[in-house]
Specification:
Blueprint lengths: L12 H18 L3 E8 L6 E8 L2 E4 L12 H7 L7 E2 L3 E2 L1 E2 L2 E2 L5 E10 L5 E10 H9 L7 E6 L4 E4 L22 H8 L4 E6 L2 E7 L11 E8 H25 L1 H24 L2 H7 L7 H22 L10 E6 L4 E4 L1 H7 L3 H4 L36 E6 L5 E13 L2 E10 L1 H38 L6 H31 L8 E4 H18 L3 E5 L6 E4 L1 H17 L6 E9 L2 E7 L34 H11 L3 E7 L3 E9 L19 E5 L3 H11 L4 E5 L2 H10 L4 E4 L2 E2 L2 E2 L14 E6 L12 E4 L5 H15 L1
Parallel strand pairs: 21-23, 27-28, 27-29, 29-32, 32-33
Antiparallel strand pairs: 1-2, 1-9, 2-3, 4-8, 5-8, 6-7, 8-9, 10-11, 10-14, 12-13, 13-14, 15-16, 15-19, 17-18, 18-19, 20-22, 23-24, 24-26, 25-26, 30-31
Helix pairs in contact: 5-6, 11-12, 11-16, 12-15, 13-14, 14-15, 16-18
Amino acid sequence: MSDGSNPNDGSTLDQWRKRLATIFQAVLRQHPEYFQIRLILAAENGKEIVRADRTALGIRVTAPERLQEKAGESYFRFGMNARSGQVVFSNITLNREEGKVDPRNIRTIRGILPIDDADGNRFGLLVINIDYEMMLRNAFRLIADRYHAVAINSAGDFMERQRNGKIEDLRLQSTEPGAPSPPPVIDAIAEATSEEGLVEVGDEVAYFFHDSGKFAQEATRMGFSLMVPRAEFDEPVSRVQKQLVFTSLVASTIFSLLAMLLARFVVNPLTSLTNQISHATRRELIETLPTDRTDEIGDIAQSFKKRAEALVDSEIRSCAIVDNVMDGLILVNEEGRIEAFNRSCERMFGYKADEIIGEHISKLMPNRFSDGEEGLEEIEPPQDDDTFSGQLRETDATTKNGRTLPIEIAVCRLNLSGKTKYSGVIRDITARRELERARAEFVATVSHELRTPLTSIRGALVLIEHILPDTLPDKAMRMIEMAQKNTKRLIMLVNDILDFEKLQAQKTAFRFAYADLNHEVETAVELNGTYAQDRGVTLQADLSDRPLVATVDKERLQQVLANLISNGAKFSPGGGTVKVGVSRNGRRAQIYVADHGEGIPEHFRHQIFTPFSQAVRGENTKIGGTGLGLAISKKLIEGMGGAIEYETEEGVGTTFRLLFDISEPRLDEISPPGSERKRPLGLHLEDDPDFAEVLRVGLEQDLQLRHASTLDEARSQLRENAFDFIIIDRAMGEENGLDLIDEIPNPETTTIIVLTAIDELIEDLRVDMTLIKSKTMTTSAITSILGLMKENA
């Protein structure tokens, strides 16, 4: 790709980056413990090519100009020295960005895959950052709270879960100077010569196992220990001992006359056995019982040994099967047969434990498993990790009465007495699925049934205002203006609700670009000037004497500024001034909006960014609004990597500040437009005929536009005509308008525009432009479409 394109299929470097970014985003969604994936070049000082991150607002792809060079990092050198195709892991460290420790303090282990080109030269590294602490916490949650548990790797890094269920933070012995000493059980395990077993630590008994693993890195070699009080561990043995002593006393009383002759052959050995049971440890008891005797004492010793071994096995089994928890717990053997089924599972599936134990797992999940061993391959964790905690996955199960039950399941492989078992934690997600369905229906209804008609009405009103004669009566003009204002207010209300829902669901997409903040402030003052005038307030732009450039989403920034300016105008006295300015604040640029209103009440300041919150002013009255504006603004600014702050004083006023890192802009060449064509022909797929007509009228001087109200009608017109451009609405009833793209004869040479009410990022590389109806005035949409057509002419 020396000339910027792939000789095999003609795809460009930017197209490959987008494809990789899409793959990385999908991987991050499937693995909650992954928080960053990158492809790093071996050349160019370790330059990142593509990078995706998990953030508080969802999964984001880093803009090319913000990618970093990683040749100075130790894991980069480590990966460069690894064999091609060999996965290696770094030591556990705190994640660093831009040379500084990430403020989230994530304990990170990096999985690194070296990649060579066709000539065997090192091309680069695929690096996945994994939250090591999250992995261990998920494992601890599968263990009953009454166990004291410790996990440790070969580097000495460890995490501890107390008996009360509290999980301590991961301690990095290798990178944190002065770190506290590990629990005593670690030294006891280190002195043991076997891979697993029982050790005594103070007044506790610990069962441990550790795995050398197939990886050489210390962070991947894990040990794990479960501890219970000695009294709890020995209680079953003491109970059996008392029963044996009682039985011996009764028997000696009944047969006292006959026993006198045999006492020295029976009583004395039994007394010795009792003393041995009372004073020996569990392991010593199993190893030293006189099971080689051929008399009654030998029989008792053999029975007692079997009982003690069963108790040890029971303690281990209890780590996988726990009663009286809300989630269902199930234990399956290597053949797929169910061995344990707790009460929560009984409630979920309708089977009693004695009905289902011994049955194959396919009886509960017939669509996922077959009635044979091969079905277990789908849930079996890697063979080289005995501490593996299976990833959460969603699937459908079947209850006793045949009802389909949506569940979430995590599977963990255990080694019990040399046999492989699978423990599953099952959660009924019927309520979650219903909530997701209801939320999707709500968003679709609000977007399509409310926002789309409102957008059409607003567009029609704007056109009416422009095409009606100046002699229209003042009363009629006032009615039109009133209709425009109320329509705009309703659209803003709907947008606030939908924006808030998207932010809560972490589905907000950002389109980052360099922006001169002086220009953005001028634009905001111009766009919101009429609103301020209606309130009797003057907007004043206070610009910086030099350009201040930041990387932001311009549309989202204007949305935030509109909210802050409207708040300043609402709370300012008549004749007041709201100042909107730009200045430098240390190493950051700031936009500020300052009013001279009443200020924010002291009692309300802690709720200022809380959704649906509004301050009571005056005589217990509120200024109109949803109470979502500042909550949405805060989420959007943080999603752009900025911060929002405010200063306020009652009776003096309030100043809000938006802070962004200053960017160094890169000047791109602007290609001159091609020659214009006369009246290009276009197809508009839209199920709202009113909106289609408004758009057609707005474009008719420069473009021809034909309307199709259904996908079938659009397909028919595609067969009969050659179109220069196609405008598509995604929401076509129960159909998806984007399906039409696959049927366009030449999608690479046809201009494709998506004009829709669904505010979601479209990742199809064939789409040239996406416009959101509620956030784009009809006149602005017309201007954007005409501009794109001129560029592509």
